[in-house]
Amino acid sequence: MEIPDLETQRINMARWLAESDEDVRLPAPNRLKDNLNPVGRVYYSFSTLLCTPCSRSQEIGLCLGAQAGEARIREVVTSAGFKRFRRATETPFNIVYEARP
Fold it and tell me: Does some domain include residue 1?
């Protein structure tokens, strides 16, 4: 089985995420200082112990974790070729983004 190049993998992953109901991100401000609160500390713990190591184990390895922030998520999604990106909905503990070609 041939492994696609990195750019193709990014595009495929972003498309899969756009079509999936499973990409629910934890809310994270774009600046660290805005996220230093009790909930943010718990999210950073989860991100450090689960999300980041999982990402590092994959070929793409962006290591965004759970606290990447909307600006970084937008950058990854648009670099994968999506033209439209928006915050579809949110709760105090989750954010759902929508990406479209």
Answer: no
